[in-house]
Write a structure and sequence with these properties.
Elements: H1 10-32, H2 38-53, H3 60-70, H4 72-96, H5 101-131, H6 136-148, H7 151-169, H8 172-206
Helix pairs in contact: 1-2, 1-8, 2-3, 2-4, 2-5, 2-8, 4-5, 5-6, 5-7, 7-8
């Protein structure tokens, strides 16, 4: 019994991970409520998950608000940029949907590339802001180059993002289910899995 409840036991480690993810999820939801602060909340959540993966399980709340505050400006810029790109994607899709087949086919290729850029910025950009100190322009450039320079992990990131997106909004029932699950820890679990993939990108350049 003592071995099971010791600090180094698998049971204790899993319980600690579960507790920290639920705590991060709660903090993320609360700090996302003003809507404009979603970018800063995403960075704090992603950075918190990176810390857990690197073995730092202490002071979760303090670190969260520290990351939230220090990266608020750049994170908000990135969130606004992603929202603008997503709006452009939707408007263009609706426009080209009414065009001829050839035009639609060519447009779909371009829109698919834009969609990949949006997903990569969402998945890598906020983690990048939380880990490195760069200008906003460098954040955009390096996040994309870092992902595209590692095709295996890039496709893992994209595949996971597509699965999550499809599973969340492909039907009204799945949308309601995703809202329920995300409210009770789902956001942090998604961020944690994504953080594992992104960590592989960071480790490659940091070990050079």
């Amino acid at each position: 019994m003592k071995k099971i409840l010791s600090l180094e036991s698998p049971v204790t480690k899993w319980l600690t991970l579960f507790t920290n993810l639920v705590l991060l999820n709660t903090l993320f939801l609360l700090t996302s409520l003003p809507i404009v602060s979603i970018g800063a909340a995403l960075t704090a959540l992603a950075t918190g998950c990176q810390r857990i993966l690197r073995g730092n399980n202490e002071h979760i709340i303090q670190h969260y608000f520290k990351d939230f505050k220090e990266n608020a400006q750049q994170s908000t810029y990135l969130w606004g940029f992603i929202v603008a790109l997503t709006t452009l994607l939707i408007v263009d899709f609706l426009f080209f949907l009414r065009q001829g087949m050839v035009v639609r086919y060519i447009a779909c290729l371009g829109l698919a590339m834009l969609c990949i850029v949006i997903l990569l910025l969402l998945s890598v950009g906020f983690s990048y802001i939380g880990r490195y100190q760069d200008s906003f322009r460098q954040v955009l450039r390096n996040s994309l180059l870092l992902a595209m320079g590692n095709p295996l992990w890039m496709w893992c990131i994209l595949g996971f993002a597509i699965i999550v997106a499809y599973g969340s909004v492909s039907s009204p029932e799945r949308l309601l289910t995703s809202i329920y699950v995300n409210t009770f820890g789902g956001c942090a679990v998604i961020a944690f899995v994504n953080a594992y993939f992104v960590k592989q990108l960071f480790d490659k350049i940091e070990k050079r």
